[in-house]
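Hey, can you fold this one?
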Amino acid sequence: MNRQAADVLEPRSEQIRPQRTLLSQPGHFPPPRVERPAAAAEPALRVLVVENEARAADTLVVGLRRHGYLAESVATGALALQAHGDADLILLDLDLPDLDGLEVCRAIRAVGDTPLIAVTARGSELDRVLGLQAGADDYLVKPYGFRELLARMEAVMRRARPRPQASRVITHGPLRIDAGTREVLLAGRPVELTRKEFDLLHLLASQPEAVISRRQLMTQVWDDTWSHRGRTIDTHVSSLRGKLGASGWIVTVRGVGFRLGRP
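Sure. Predicted structure:
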């Protein structure tokens, strides 16, 4: 990320000497060095930078903090797997000293839906496809402009925000889905779902008699119209069935997609 230094560090009257900022305790984000304007109501976004090159990580962290983000960095895949749970957004370099970046991406995506941007020197079409299929929400090739990175971060976070739903509450037998609070109750008991699991279940429940195709699921749940996410969809469906306590809640229609069932 060295070529980004000039773009990140905009001219200022005082001189700032970036220091390596590793997580002493995974998931702990210290206060940002620059406060957001008083008018900003939303809390600062917590960004985890996974970058093994110290100078590049320092430069990026300083730039993000100047723009009001709670930025922190780790240098290895192992530390990233410990720290990602408390981050709102992850910037992941795929070239790490201990673990393959794609495997780190898959591991993070397997346990949650934290927005993730792959930031790497791997720039071929195949590399991009593999990164997106591994679960990255966006893919940025080095060298890049810092303003482009900020714009991509904002775009990814816009897609991650809950979308307004036409029907606020859907009831299907003992299943109750509240789109406003994003809560699911089964026979009065709460069911803890990830963001994508909720979006998938709500989409199926909003059209209870219809079969939703895999392509439609990719488009509406994952904002992806072209890559093959078959295994990702199957994994989320399997997880949903387990959390709902019965496989009959989501019925597989071979060669087409899925529909909501009633065990």
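The first helix runs from residue 5 to 8. Let me know if you want another pass with a different chain boundary.
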